[in-house]
Amino acid sequence: MHRNSLTIAGLLIVPMLAGLAFADTIPRRVLIADVDHTSVQISPDGMRVGWIFTDTAGRHLFVRELAGSSEREVAPGTEITAWQWSKGSDKLLIVTHGAAGETLSALPLDNPPKTQTLISGSRVRVIGANATDVVASVVTSSADSTGVFRIHLDGSGAEKLADIGDADAWWVDRDMRLIAARIQNENGFALAYRRADKAWVAFTQAGPVDGLPVSVVSASPDGSKLYATVGSNSNVAERGMGIEEGRAAIWEVDPKTGQKRLYATGLRNPNGMAWESGVLWTVVNERDGLGDETPPDYLTSVRDGGFYGWPYCYWGQTVDDRVPQDPAMVAKAIQPDYALGGHTASLGLCWMPSGTLPGFPDGMVIGQHGSWNRSTLSGYAVVFVPFENGRPSGPPRDILTGFLAPDEKVSYRRPVGVTLGPDGSLLVADDVGNVIWRVTGA
Q1: Do residues 213 and 189 make contact, with C-beta atoms less than 8 angstroms apart?
Q2: Cis peptide before 361, with omega less than 30 degrees from 0?
Q3: How far apart are the first and last CA of the chain?
């Protein structure tokens, strides 16, 4: 499967995937832990990586120190379905599966690994954790015990925060003061959120859901507003605009008042969001069916109240004649800031300050998941867009490439989310290999 790899204690540690390439100017240190059907996480301090290894005896949780070569098995013989670091504490949080369902436990990082059971249910999801509390969604056969709970790690009990028990993604701020959930099912989509001093509030958009989901939930730099990206329910509104209400947009929510509004519209499938000098930026996946390069996916600043063309037009005011037209909407369509190429599936986005990687100025890092609907594939890379004076200022530069086989029949890896770790390294999530890449200066 891999070349240039080393097997240690039953784990495959891959310092360099065959064919993976880096921009030549980047001195780099890369750590990748690679095993089947697992999750891999970097600790909040950026100094440890953990992963799950599956063998005939069960699922084992390992921790490896990034500064050295030693790894430690901390949860032998358990079927671990999820886990998370507890920020600021000496505990791991693990969800194990047994005959009675799932159990959330706190596991000390130091031996002996004596677990403390916190809560149980048929489905348990860890949302966030700090040194004193963990927030988890729990589904059980009882409505009273289904919901979102804040659980105290000292064993003093749990507080029910909300009746929403099974959302598909969560966002938590650093101090766990603000927690948001996205929910999507046959009835539509919703964003629910809570502040420590406020009750849970949710807004929903009804209607059948066959298209693109609520992709990302984030917050303004000061935490005063929440933002959610929502993709369209179709390619070019071929089933009418009725099912597109509230979609192809970025929503803004005020957690203090519960007020919500459409912040920007006409964005066919907005994904990652990032802030630079008080300006919101996003990457958008455009419509299909017009060829390999038309229209391009793009990176753009997001204007409050701006309309970006979908479904009537693209890349400014280029009309899509497959769509019944509205000339007034075409006339006000904003041209995006920066083209990324057709069907690159640009998903992840983060701001990277100058000096994070040697030779790289200020700019945006983009995780490109890669195309499926082109005669020749594109994307499958982590790229960098340089900025000057708050605007894109030159051609994109590769940070990581070589995820795709030369004959395009195999994708070794597919990057998605990108972010900067607490230690200043660039972290790249990969949803084919279930890995996290960590890239730093030498």
Answers
A1: yes
A2: no
A3: 28
Distance, CA of 135 to CA of 195 (rounded, Å): 13
Residue 15, C-beta contacts closer than 8 angstroms, at least 6 positions apart: 4, 5, 6, 30, 31, 32
Q: Report pLDDT for 189.
A: 62
- E-assigned strand segments in 285-434: 297-301, 306-307, 313-314, 318-319, 338-341, 346-352, 363-368, 381-388, 391-392, 397-401, 415-420, 426-430
Chain-wide mean pLDDT for the chain?
Answer: 79
- Tokens 């603000």 appear where? 178
Q: Is 166 exposed, middle or buried (0-12, 13-18, 19+ CB in 10 A)?
A: middle
| Structural contact between residues 178 and 165, judged by C-beta atoms closer than 8 angstroms | no
Q: Which residue has the higher pLDDT, 66 or 238?
A: 238
Q: Helix or strand or coil: residue 29?
A: strand
The DSSP secondary-structure symbol of 243 reads: G
Q: Kindly report the length of the chain.
A: 442
Count the Cβ atoms, other than its own, within 10 Å of residue 175: 11
**Residue type at position 421:** G
R_g of the chain computed on alpha carbons: 22
Res. 263: pLDDT tops 90: yes
3-state secondary structure 248-285: CEEEEECCCCCCEEEEEECCCCEEEEEEECCEEEEEEC
As a whole number of angstroms, the distance between CA 340 and CA 367 comes to 11
**Sheet-wide strand order for 116-121:** 80-85, 91-98, 101-108, 116-121
- Most confidently modeled of 6-15, 246-255, 293-302? 293-302
Higher pLDDT, 171 or 108: 108
What does pTM read for this prediction? 0.80
Residue 330's H or E segment, with its range, is helix 327-331
Report DSSP letters for 170-217, one per residue. EEE-TTSSEEEEEEEETTEEEEEEEETTS--EEEEEES---S--EEEE
- What is the per-residue burial (b if ≥16 Cβ within 10 Å, else e) of 364-373? bbbbbbbbee
Share of the chain above pLDDT 70, in %: 76
